[in-house]
Amino acid sequence: MASISSALVIGGGVAGPVTAAALAKAGIEATVYEAYPEPTEGIGGLLALEPNGVVALETIGAAAGVLEAGTPITRSRMAIGGRTFDLVASPSGLPARQAIERADLHRVLREQAVAVGVRLEHGRRLVSVSEEADGVVAHFDDGSSARGDVLVGADGVRSTVRTLIDPGAPGAGYTGLLGFGGYADVDLDVEPATMTFAFGKRAYYLYWRHGDGRVAWGVNLPSPYLSLTEARRTSPEEWLRTLREVYADDDPGALLAASTSPESLQVVGALHIMPPVPHWHRGRMVLVGDAVHAPSNSTGQGASLAIESGIQLARCLRDLPSVESAFAAYEGLRRTRVEKIAARGAKISHAKAPGPLARRVMPLVLPLVFRAQAVARVAEEEQRYAIDWDAKVA
Ligand SMILES: Cc1cc2nc3c(=O)[nH]c(=O)nc-3n(C[C@H](O)[C@H](O)[C@H](O)COP(=O)(O)OP(=O)(O)OC[C@H]3O[C@@H](n4cnc5c(N)ncnc54)[C@H](O)[C@@H]3O)c2cc1C
Question: Where do the coiled-coil regions begin and end (predicted)?
Answer without folding.
Answer: none
